[in-house]
Structure prediction request, 210 residues.
Amino acid sequence: MIDWLQAAGEWADRVRPETRSKYFPKNPLRRLLLARFMNSLAETLEAVAWESLLDLGAGEGLVDYFLRERFPGRRLTGVEPDPAALLVARRINPGISYLGADGRALPLAAGSFDAVICLEVLEHLSDYPAVIAEAARVSAGPCVFSVPEWPCYQGANFLAGHNWSRLGEHPGHVVSFTASRLRRDLATVFTSVRVGRSFPWLLARAEGRR
Prediction:
């Protein structure tokens, strides 16, 4: 298992406070859960034949930093609409190409990448099906999605003393996903959907565009 904090900790002081809290938590249990999630993601991608990958909703590029360390020599590209996040991502990952674009309308040709990842994005958008459709369009192979699992994510936050007024729900989340809901939504676009868990997140591999 890769030590996520050791791999990317040098960049902790360059990211926004919210990102720092998410990716570099002080709580040892949260650190363990994040490391487990990152390694679950890597194991999912190890089971896929790919040389090029799109990170749809790359944020400040911390996941991309992890992936380029884990998969050296692969072509990684990130898409992110936030200019401030893009600035950090480009500094952290000078060898990765980043596009400033909306994930619901990608300026990319169909089948441009061997695989696509879309992590912690869908729950922020009421029109998230457009992102799923675009991920499927630009991927020539599988797409990997992750979302917080309801009510596990919210319950863990509540018990940890976060967002009590929202019963543990993050203020930026507008959609809550159970495993069945995520599977159902992905199945409208893909012929094969496998939903797994890395508490408190769901991690799904979807392929075979309808």
Notes: The chain is about 35% helix and 20% strand. The two ends are 35 Å apart (CA to CA). The first helix runs from residue 4 to 8. The first strand starts at residue 52 and ends at 56.
